[in-house]
Amino acid sequence: MHISLDGFVAGPKGEMDWIKIDEEVFDYVGKRISKGDSALYGRITYEMMENYWPNAGDKPNATKHDIEHSRWYNKVKKFVLSNTMKNEGSNNTVIISNIPEGINEIRNQEGDEILLFGSPTTAHSLMKLKLIDGYWLFVNPVILGRGIPLFTDVKEKIDLKLLTTTRQFTCGVTELNYLTANHQ
């Protein structure tokens, strides 16, 4: 998840035009997510992704990133946390309305890590339920001052362990990987 230095994942109106991303970041993220077989989204982020990624790689002006991510998106199993969406035969997509039960069911399935994409509201819900095993953050060199925070309404301390895969990119973004204490 992209985050500002002061802890926001989006501006006050949900804007993300402050995120610094380039081919180096795209390539790095692409390599890591290509190993995964499951993606987790909140409803809003999922709908945004569905409006772009299924056909992004087929467009005449598609970038290398568009082609690779579109291919991955179309094959990965998608889990969407939503109380309003229904399973309507969506392509490789499962809707989860009971978060604790649904997440624990996914955890017990065979496969690699489950990556949460965007979805700050979903992240907040999962944090409250202590269902996040780690944080993969891309700290952007910007202070927003206000916006949608990643860490909000945290009632108790969450101990983290920094992994050695931390990296700085030439665009100024720093990747941080943490495991939560319950997953160390």
Reported by name, the CATH topology is Dihydrofolate Reductase, subunit A
Mean pLDDT: 87
Beta-sheet strand percentage?
Answer: 15-25%
Inertia-based shape: globular
Structural class: alpha/beta
The major sheet is characterized as:
5 strands, mixed
SS summary, helix count? 6
Portion of residues within helices? 25-40%
Distance between the termini: 20 Å
Q: Can you name the CATH architecture?
A: 3-Layer(aba) Sandwich
The low-pLDDT segments are none
Number of domains: 1
Radius of gyration: 16 Å
H and E order: EEHEHHHEEHEHEEEEE
Tell me the name of the CATH class: Alpha Beta
Number of strands: 11
Within CATH, the superfamily carries the name: Dihydrofolate Reductase, subunit A
Top keywords for this entry?
184 residues, alpha/beta, Dihydrofolate Reductase, subunit A, four-stranded parallel sheet, 11 strands, 24% strand
